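User: My collaborator sent over this chain with a note saying "see what the structure looks like." That's all I know about it. Can you take a look?
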Amino acid sequence: MRSAVLILFYDCSQLILRAIANSAPHVEKIYVSYSPYPWSYNPEAREKFRNPSDPGILKESPHLDKLQLIEGDWATEEDQRNEVLDLAREEGFDILIVQDADEFFMSEDYAANLAQIESNRDFAYFRTPWYQFWKDTRHVILCRESLTYRKGLVETRLKNTTLAFSMAFALNLHSDIRFNHCRRPSHVDDYLMLDRPCYHLSYVLSDNQVERKIRTYGHTNQIRHAQWLRRKWYGWQPSTRCLHPLNPAAWLKAVPFGGPLPKELEDLPEVENQYTPLTWLEKTKEFIIDLGDLIRMRLKVLKSQAIARISK
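Assistant: Without extra context I'll predict from the sequence alone. Here is the result:
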């Protein structure tokens, strides 16, 4: 089975070489896709921001023989990902792994996931469980309920868990699958959930990086930027609840993580973040908003359960 990996290179200089090192032993080729501009979801941010990462850093990788840098300017995330998907398909690869620069695996888990894919080649794409880190590698997100869906029904439910599920880890290039929206693929129901987890450093970021992230990524228009930054990022403390920028109640809180890390992360420098305590009034408003979010999420789950019972 010929495998290649796609890594997007935007504002992640501190992680890109580590991500390349994490994937290199397991794949034949590493496509690094780079744009100097953010996507066009937020026109104001597209005018304001530029990619602070320099592709010249790739020359420092000991895996240059596997690297192919693809430079361009894409309006959407799916456009950028699909260009590489088409190239990998043209070059005869069987599987395209989707591993952003903030995603890592234990080496043995990477190999086990690929072996599981090779034994289940009839699926259009593959997903993994993942830990979602918050602020540093010592805290992970506790999900109130972690759900996956197939044909609109709840398939997997984990309560109060630190394991959630990625959208797409690998795509079967012998199918006609494509990216439809951001990382979400077509044939969305035709997947296999793999066994081994990803370590996702999605919010192990500097303050500047997290501001750029939420103002430029594919969900930017669904977020109240200033409110979330003030209450959940700058005002964060271990007791802070409802952390998710889009679906607050999905991320109940951040809890300590004491498990081992992939070797590429063992010496990762710690990021320093500003802390600005909330006022009494801000805390009161936050409590009321969080309570409403938790109630709405519970009603959503009850609705899904009712649909599942009716469909049986």
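A starting point for your reply to your collaborator: The radius of gyration is 19 Å.
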